[in-house]
Amino acid sequence: MSSTIRVETITLGDELLLGIRENSHLTYLGSQLAHHGIEPAANLVIRDNPNDIKDFFSEAWKRSDLVITTGGLGPTTDDLTRESIAEALEEELIYDAEIEQAIRQRFQQLERKMPEINLRQCHRPKNAEILRNPYGTAPGLFLQKEGKILVMLPGPAREMHPMFEEQVIPRLQTAGVLPEIDCYLQLRTAGIGESDLAEKVGPILADIPGIVIGYCAHAGLVDLRLSSLDSDILDEEKLTKIGDQCREEIGDDFVCFGDRSLAEVIFRELRSLNQTLAVAESCTGGLLSASFTEISGISKVFHGGAVCYHNDAKVQILEIPEIMLEQHGAVSEEIAIAMATSACEKFGTDYGLSITGVAGPTGGTKIMPIGSIYLGYASPLGVWTKKINLRGDRASNRRRATSAALDWMRRKLRKYKIEEVFAAAEVGNIEL
User: What pLDDT, on a 0 to 100 scale, did the predictor assign at position 2?
Assistant: First the structure.
């Protein structure tokens, strides 16, 4: 289908407008559509009000080829999406016994009695197709009308994600909205800004027929997304060659193809060396440890972490001498190195990674302003320290410090990979 297709997403819920819950639906749907070469034209966030739902949906329906909604399909009185949109489209709502049976089976699996209020979910627009929901009670709906397509999805991510990937995407491919052959490539980068990345790869990507280019900056990373709407013009093999050219041009800032996290990249590198890691952190308050423990199987590599916020904790847990803290201060290259080496010693690991700094909004000085962060790195080949200066708020500084530490270790591991292999062989961890 032509790249001129217009897609709008509508996320419903008072909690999104009030900032109680992050709008992760937009992130997910945007990523999924970009994977297939389509970028949404707009996203609307609407409160749970029937008049607003009808009005905003009607406008989106007029100007778009595909409208995707999330939320408001539950059984409670504030779940008004189904009824409001059916009215806007002048679609009759009918009772569907198949939906009722699926809901009752769901409650039987949970060994719970079904509340009568759940019967509200058994209605659907007469011409809509049911999207099964094996993880909840709210069915999704797929409607083709007036040469357009409406997709209605439940709000919980655990229900929406598999429904979209397993049921919606195949239907959109059949309808000609998405290409039947997936032709998509993502390059993940770190340590380079979006504009700098675009400048580097721009000459490579210029004037390539059929290519769709997207950039996405987040949490210290920038993703370059390349896709094709027509595999006859630009197939997977050609796209892979283009990706390899981009990778070579990006150099050390290239992290991986796909969407692996920095922590997962480190995990794979250490696992290949049969070596282990521990961390020590202060201002990041456990974010560094959490980035590793999110990975399944990480216990093969990651032994543990110490969050030592107060100086007393650094002394008692990491056994950093008080005199060192008095002489250099908790935020210093000496303490960063001491924390990294102590993490190795306390957890019995080959590598140690540490973070100490001033996250803000208080605690900064002229000599050590807010955003001053020291990283420490201990390895079989020696120890290093690095200072970075951040300019965000407290939350941003903590996230970026974590990403910076992970990216620094990633680069160190790749730079000294050969030396690390020989070092591991010398102590009998691997065989050459």
Answer: 43
What is the identity of the amino acid at 207?
Answer: D
User: How far is the C-alpha of 53 from the C-alpha of 74, rounded, in Å?
Assistant: 15
Supply the pLDDT for residue 67: 98
Position 425 scores a pLDDT of 60
Helices (H), 251-393: 262-273, 287-293, 311-316, 322-328, 333-347
Provide, rounded to the nearest whole percent, the portion of the chain with pLDDT above 70: 96
- CA-based nearest residue to 189, from 231, 225, 150: 225
Q: Is the pTM of this model over 0.85?
A: no
**Residue ranges in the chain modelled with pLDDT below 70:** 1-3, 418-432
Could you give the C-alpha distances from 415 to 56, 254, 277, 421, in angstroms and in order?
53, 13, 18, 12
Q: Which two tokens stand for residue 142?
A: 């797929």
The CA distance from 207 to 378, in Å, is 46
Q: What are the E-state strand segments in 148-220?
A: 148-153, 184-190, 211-218
Q: Which helix (H) or strand (E) holds 125?
A: strand 123-125
Q: How far is CA 59 from the centre of its chain?
A: 30
CATH no. of 7-174: 3.40.980.10
Burial of 365 (0-12, 13-18, 19+ CB in 10 A): exposed
Torsion angle defined by CA atoms of residues 89, 90, 95 and 97, in that order, rounded to the nearest 10 degrees = -50
Per-residue confidence (pLDDT) for residue 428, from 0 to 100: 57
Please give the pLDDT value at position 398: 97
What is the pLDDT, as a whole number, of residue 46? 92
What is residue 432's predicted lDDT score, i.e. its pLDDT?
A: 46
Largest separation between any pair of C-alpha atoms in the chain: 78
Q: Would you list the DSSP string of 340-361? A: HHHHHHHHT-SEEEEEEE--SS
Q: What is the CATH number of domain 184-257?
A: 3.30.70.2860
- 3-state SS, residue 61: helix
Domain 262-426 fold: Maf protein (3.90.950)
